[in-house]
């Protein structure tokens, strides 16, 4: 039997970290909010949870760095409002294995210092006195003190507890509209009427029926991850360790997340021997002791990537529609700032200067 239409101030499509954070913040401002989630965990369920705008900072990504820094500075207060979100203050060691990687790190360090970021350059002996499990062969390390980490699964569980509005399981197929004004969402078995709709559906955005001129183009980028456990408890490493194309994020209980591949393979989420091999090979050259750990889980997820690698946050071409998608490698990091910008957009406010590069309207008329 078709579900009857119901009416809300805001319908949020997607119940991952970003969707729930937007819903939570909107309800705190007094809105009647419904979150509709497909029931299939999104990229948050695979993400390692590095809160690392500085060590992720790369050449040509200054707008992303600004957004990341804005979000990072809000994270402590954001988590203080949540019950057990899995936040930990751990820095990042970015490690070079050979001369080429060391030269690249020195170039990155120069950029980071030019931007006023706090980064220490450590000789191998200094790095190994911080993290004795590092291989004696490493060439150089950068210590990024301001980075932190969070367990995204705990974060989503905490947001589900904190959000007191409606949470529904269902597959949203598109939008209901009157001309260019959004009036709600369509589901496989009914509709939900809402004054405004927030799309925070990650890569599933690509499957929604939205008019061409108003779409945000998002494509999946596969990432494979291993979840590891030290039977001897915590202590192998106490910081996030990053190498070229690989990272190891410690949890407080002796568990680790080892990630992540970057693969353009459409909607495929099958873990592969090659992907797992590359991650283990690359990280074991930096932290040989990971080969003693137990494997708890091998999992792959899909990052929602836009053509310019920047997210789409704020109002789009359709009236009543607010985007919170395309966060690519940075969904967990950008959760607090996205929620703040989305509730401001719902209230009719424009994006602040540091976030204008994320304006969804830059994609008007662009095909996925
Ligand atoms: N943020 C790290 C990744 O996407 O693998």
TrEMBL record:
It catalyses: glycine + O2 + H2O = glyoxylate + H2O2 + NH4(+). One of its GO terms (molecular function) is flavin adenine dinucleotide binding. Pathway: Cofactor biosynthesis; thiamine diphosphate biosynthesis. GO terms for biological process: thiamine biosynthetic process. Its EC number is 1.4.3.19. Residues 9-344 form the FAD dependent oxidoreductase domain. SUPFAM superfamilies: FAD-linked reductases, C-terminal domain, FAD/NAD(P)-binding domain. InterPro entries: FAD-dep_OxRdtase, FAD/NAD-bd_sf, Gly_oxidase_ThiO. Keywords: Oxidoreductase, Thiamine biosynthesis. GO terms for cellular component: cytoplasm. This is glycine oxidase. It comes from Solirubrobacter ginsenosidimutans. The lineage of its organism: Bacteria, Bacillati, Actinomycetota, Thermoleophilia, Solirubrobacterales. The gene is thiO.
């Amino acid at each position: 039997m078709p579900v009857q239409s119901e009416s809300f101030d805001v319908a949020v499509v997607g119940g991952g970290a970003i969707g729930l954070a937007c819903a939570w913040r909107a309800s705190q401002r007094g809105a009647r909010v419904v979150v509709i989630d497909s029931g299939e965990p999104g990229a948050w369920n695979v993400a390692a949870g590095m809160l690392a705008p500085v060590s992720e900072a790369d050449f040509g990504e200054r707008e992303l760095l600004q957004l990341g820094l804005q979000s990072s500075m809000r994270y402590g207060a954001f988590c203080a409002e949540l019950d057990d979100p899995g936040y930990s203050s751990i820095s990042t060691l970015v490690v070079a294995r050979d001369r080429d990687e060391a030269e690249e790190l020195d170039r990155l360090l120069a950029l980071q210092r030019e931007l006023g970021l706090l980064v220490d350059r450590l000789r191998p002996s200094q790095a190994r006195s911080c993290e004795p499990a590092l291989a004696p062969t490493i060439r150089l390390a950068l210590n990024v003190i301001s980075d932190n980490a969070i367990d995204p699964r705990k974060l989503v569980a905490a947001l589900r507890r904190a959000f007191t509005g409606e949470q529904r399981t269902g597959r949203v197929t598109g939008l209901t509209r009157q001309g260019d004004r959004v009036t709600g969402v369509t589901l496989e078995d009914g509709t939900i009427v809402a004054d405004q709709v927030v799309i925070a559906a990650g890569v599933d955005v690509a499957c929604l029926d939205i008019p061409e001129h108003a779409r945000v183009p998002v494509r999946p980028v596969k990432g494979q991850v291993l979840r590891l456990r030290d039977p001897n408890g915590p202590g192998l490493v106490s910081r996030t360790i990053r190498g070229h194309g690989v990272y190891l994020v410690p949890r407080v209980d002796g568990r680790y997340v080892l990630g992540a591949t970057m693969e353009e393979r459409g909607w495929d989420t099958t873990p592969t021997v090659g992907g797992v091999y590359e991650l283990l090979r690359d990280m074991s050259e930096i932290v040989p002791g990971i080969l003693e750990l137990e494997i708890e889980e091998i999992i792959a997820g899909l990052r929602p990537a836009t053509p310019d690698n920047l997210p789409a946050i704020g109002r789009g071409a359709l009236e009543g529609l607010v985007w919170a998608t395309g966060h690519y490698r940075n969904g967990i990091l950008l959760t607090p700032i996205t929620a703040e910008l989305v509730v401001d957009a719902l209230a009719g406010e424009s994006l602040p200067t540091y976030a204008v590069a994320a304006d969804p309207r830059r994609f008007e008329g662009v095909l996925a």
